[in-house]
Amino acid sequence: MPLVSLKNTITLAISVRDRHASAEWFSDKLGFELSHHIDEAGWSEMRTNVDGVTLGLGEQAEPSPGNCVPVFEVADISTARSALEDAGVAFDGATETIEGMVSTATFYDPDMNALMLAQDLTGSS
Fold it and tell me: 69-83 in b/e burial notation, b at 16+ Cβ within 10 A?
């Protein structure tokens, strides 16, 4: 039995220099649809053609190409994080919260690949 109960969504987060230009590129080239831009968080999301899979565009002055972080949605990030930490899973710092939007926590697999948990705080999930 798994330690954490994941929802049926996943966000693939990548870093980009200009979220708006990248959103246009992914729309024109791959047919993804813009869900929203959250300018105050430097974040944009696009619906892919795969149900439950979203592309997240995180704006960075110096993006890290090849650095894709799968983001798994959970109903309760505190419970999920505690279960993983109790099992010896390493996390990178504290859980980050943008009030009214999302809470996230980055953790690592045994090969130090970054993964993330996210809890939607908008009330729409």
Answer: bebbbbeebeebbee
Q: What are phi and psi of 59, to 5 degrees?
A: -75, 125
- Rounded to two decimals, the pTM is 0.79
Question: Measured between alpha carbons, how far is 55 from 11 in angstroms, rounded to an integer?
Answer: 6
Interatomic CA distance for residues 60 and 76, integer angstroms? 28
**Average pLDDT by consecutive 10-residue portion of the chain (125 residues)?**
92 93 94 94 94 94 84 96 95 95 93 91 78
Name the residue among 51, 46, 15 with its Cα closest to residue 31: 46
Do the strands 114-120 and 69-74 form a parallel or antiparallel pair, or are they unpaired?
A: parallel
Q: Which amino acid is at 57?
A: L
